[in-house]
C-alpha cells in the first residue's frame, strides 16, 4: 500500500470534520445501535469510552490514517530504543526505563554517538532508594535528635512537585508510614502554612530539583535549611537533608551529604520524573511496596502502548480524539474531571504534562506549525467542578471536551456517598450529550404550574444544546497500580500528540524568558534599587510597588 503523505492525511481529516452535521453526536447513537460497542475499548483493566464524541467510522479511519502518515508508531519505537527524540535538547526520552523491571536493557544514545546503559543506572538508584526508604521506616536512619522521622517535606516546583504531590495525595492513607508535605511556591506564605505542622526533630527534608538551580526551590530550600539549623545546629541539619537531582556539584555545595543524593539523568524530563528519584517522597510517605506498585502500573501501560495495534491503542486513541476536537472542530480547551477526591491534584499534574509539552508554535524542524496545537487544560474533581465551571460546559457558547474519570469501587465504607458521586459523574456526561430541547423544557415548566408568559420568557435560559463531547475512563478501583496506569496513559497520549503535530513535546523553552526578566527585576526591588528600562506598564507597576513598600 502506498503510504499517505501527512498533508493528504490532514486534508482528509479536516474535510470530514467540516461535513454538515459533523458535530452531532446524538444522531450517531440513533443511527448505530452498536456505537457504544464500537467506540469503547478495554485494556489494562480499564474502559475507555469515546462514543460520546462526534467521531464516526469515517473520522476514526481518517484519524488512524493520520497516525500512520505521521509515523507515530515508528516514533514510539525510536523513543523506546533510546534515540534522541527530544531534538532541540538533543536528548533521549526514557521515562519508560524508570519503571521497567531490573535489567530491562534500556539504552540511551548520547549526542557523542556513545550508548549508556540506562537500565543499569536506574537499577542502582532504585536499590539505593529502597535501602534508604526501608531504613527510615525501620527507624535505622534517625533524626539528629535520635527520633524516628515522621514527616517528609518535598521542596520542588513544576515536575519536581506536581507529579509526586498528585501521586501522594492519591495513594496516602491512614496506615501509611510517613506524612508527605509539599512546598513549591516562592511565596513564603506556602511555608508559613506548613511550618506550624512540623517538628524539625522529626522532619526529613527532600530538595527535589533536576537542575538544582531553580530559583523558587533554592529560595525555599535555604529557608527550610535555616529552620532546621536553628534547632539542630549545622551538623544536625545536614542529617535531615536529602537531594533529588542530576546536579551533584550543586547538591554538595548546598551541604547535602553525598550518600543522601539520589540522582537521575537528563533523559528524564521534569514532568515525566515522578518515577525517578524525584518520586522519593511518594516512597517515604506511602511505602516502598506501594511505590513499586505505582511503577508496575505505569509499566503495564508502557507494555500496552508498545504492543497494541493502533486501532486498539489507548494512548493513541486518546491523542486522536484530541486531534479531532482541536484541529477538526477548533475546540482548544479541555477539561479533566476525576470523580475521585484522591485525584484532586491530577488535573494540575496533567496541566503541566500537556501544556508544557504541547504549548508549541513551531515544528521540530523550526517551521511555523500549520495546525493548532496544545489545548488549554483545566479541571477539578467532581462533584466540586459541577458547582463551579460546569455551567459553561453545558450552556456556554463553545463546547469544551471533557475527560471524566470514574472509579467503580472506593476504598472508604460510605457506599451512599459513592453512589451519589458516580450518579453525578454519569449524569454530567449524559447531560452534555443529550441536552434538553424546547419541548421538554416547556412541558416540564407547564407541569410545574408556570404561566404561559413565564414559560416563554424562561425557555431560552433553560434549554441545553446537547451534543457536547466527552470521553470517559472507567476504572474498577484506584490503587497505586491503577494510578500508574492512568498517569502513563496520559504521558503516552502527550507523546503521540507531539508526533501528530510534529512538535518537540520534551522541551520547554517558553519558560525561560520570564525567568530571565525576573532576574533583572529582582535588584530593582531592593531598597537601594531603581526602576530600570521597561515597558511603561511594568515600570509604572514597579514604581507603585516601591512606593507602597515605602522604598
Ligand atoms: O519551569 C519549567 C521547569 O523547568 C519544569 O519543566 C520543571 O519541571 C521545573 O521547572 C522544575 O525544574 P527543576 O526540577 O530543575 O527544579
TrEMBL record:
Q: What is its EC number?
A: 5.3.1.9
Q: Where does this protein act, in terms of pathway?
A: Carbohydrate degradation; glycolysis; D-glyceraldehyde 3-phosphate and glycerone phosphate from D-glucose: step 2/4; Carbohydrate biosynthesis; gluconeogenesis
Annotated GO molecular function terms are:
glucose-6-phosphate isomerase activity
Signal peptide from the UniProt entry? none
Keyword Electron transport appears in the UniProt entry: no
Q: Where in the cell is it found?
A: Cytoplasm
Q: Which reaction does it catalyse?
A: alpha-D-glucose 6-phosphate = beta-D-fructose 6-phosphate
Magnesium: present as a keyword of the record?
Answer: no
What keywords are assigned to this protein? Cytoplasm, Gluconeogenesis, Glycolysis, Isomerase
User: What is the active site of this protein?
Assistant: 356 (proton donor), 387, 515
Q: Name one Pfam family in it.
A: PGI
Family membership, please give it. Answer: Belongs to the GPI family.
Sorted alphabetically, which PANTHER family does this protein's record hold? GLUCOSE-6-PHOSPHATE ISOMERASE (PTHR11469:SF1)
- Functional summary from the UniProt entry: Catalyzes the reversible isomerization of glucose-6-phosphate to fructose-6-phosphate.
This chain belongs to the protein called Glucose-6-phosphate isomerase
As recorded in Swiss-Prot or TrEMBL, the protein's gene is named pgi
